[in-house]
Amino acid sequence: MKLSTKDASAYFAKPEPGRTGLLIYGTDAMRVALKRQEVIAALIGPKGEEEMRLTRLPAADVRRDPASLTDAVKAVGFFPGPRAVFVEDANDSHTDAILPALEDWRDGDAQVIVTGGNLKKTSKLLKFFESHRNAYAAAIYDNPPTRAEIEAELKRAGLKDLGQEALQDLSALALALDPGDFRQTLEKLALYKHGDPSPAAPADVAAVAPVSTEAEIDDILDIVAEAKTSQIGPLMQRLRGQGVTPVTLCIGLMRHFRTLYAIAATPAGARPPAFGPRRDRIIRQAQTWGAIKLQQALTVITETDLTLRSAGQTAPQMALVERAMIRLAMMGRR
């Protein structure tokens, strides 16, 4: 069965022990890994791994020895409680080795948690989970976290007493950081406020927020957003020499322009969802572009991202990103 984004979030927090399995897949390996950690921890409990109720099997090992998965699923544990078998980094080349254990699954067997990358709709592995009456498939998208997801992360980190401005700053940080970095920032904030009964303030968030080591990437994003077309080429050449990948730049563009759109769409009088020392500059960029033009910019970035990920794409990827940046900068001038 296919889980929607909303239903998947609920299931990850409270999985059903009697299910055959769960497939979690998506383009962002970090997001997939975090959801996998969450669902396994909720399924087997905090002592599950210590009590050997979790078995980890790389998909490549399962392909070499398909019986290893069946044996792990059928094994009887010494400790009572739900069991899980985690199959990591699966794709269609591993399907024939994985499916027999799932097809032979019976009540009392371990639940099989499978993670994969960007599986196509025609994927045999994906179709199996989506059509199975007792298994689930959940896609993890590269979307900004919802308010519910941010609140869940706050709860997980033990952060209960937050000032409204601090909460808004954390919401802005969630748009700018990778999920793993955001979770680490919350853990640092919880430690920073340990023993301090006062509500967390923006200054506390600023004290634990990660310092960007990618200042030049921030520079190129500002150059594009401020329509400084002539500066794009030289800085792109420097970034290329430093080994920055086209995908990294495209992800940075998407996050930056999503932040600008969120600011542009903020109701009058509300606190803009921007954070840090670049806050005023980002707000000015959003005001200059406006919500309608930012929607058009996001469409350009999405098309570029899809082109980069296309198997039939033959043009140099860095040139594609640079062309998209120049196109965006020209849009910003109109």
Can you put this structure into words, describing what you see?
- This protein is of the alpha/beta class and 334 residues long.
- The protein folds into 3 domains: 2-139, P-loop containing nucleotide triphosphate hydrolases (Rossmann fold, 3-Layer(aba) Sandwich); 147-208, no CATH class; 215-333, Zinc Finger, Delta Prime, domain 3 (Up-down Bundle), CATH 1.20.272.10.
- Helix content is 56%, strand content 9%.
- It contains 16 helices and 6 strands.
- It has helices spanning 5-13, 29-44, 59-64, 67-74, 95-103, 124-131, 147-156, 164-176, 179-192, 202-208, 215-225, 232-241, 246-264, 279-289, 291-309, 317-333; strands at residues 2-3, 21-25, 54-58, 84-90, 111-116, 135-139.
- The protein has a 6-stranded parallel beta sheet, with helices on both faces.
- Helix 5 links the parallel strand 4 (84-90) and strand 5.
- Helix 4 runs parallel beside helix 5 (95-103), helix 8 (164-176) runs parallel beside helix 10 and helix 13 packs parallel to helix 16 (317-333).
- The radius of gyration is 23 Å and the shape is globular.
- The termini are far apart.
- The mean pLDDT is 87.
Radius of gyration: 23 Å
Give the strand order of the largest sheet, numbering strands 1, 2, ... along the chain. 1-6-2-5-4-3
Structural class: alpha/beta
Note the main sheet: 6 strands, parallel
CATH topology of the largest domain: Rossmann fold
Mean pLDDT over the full residue set: 87
User: What pattern of helices and strands is seen along the backbone?
Assistant: EHEHEHHEHEHEHHHHHHHHHH
* Portion in helices: 55-70%
Per DSSP, the total helix count is 16
| Poorly predicted tracts of residues | none
What is the architecture of the largest domain at the second tier of CATH? 3-Layer(aba) Sandwich
Distance between the termini: 47 Å
Query: What percentage of the residues does DSSP assign to strands (E)?
Result: 5-15%
**Whole-number count of domains:** 3
**Globular, elongated, flat, extended or rod-shaped: what is the shape?**
globular
Q: Give the CATH class of the largest domain.
A: Alpha Beta
What would CATH call the homologous superfamily of the largest domain? Answer: P-loop containing nucleotide triphosphate hydrolases
What is the strand tally? 6
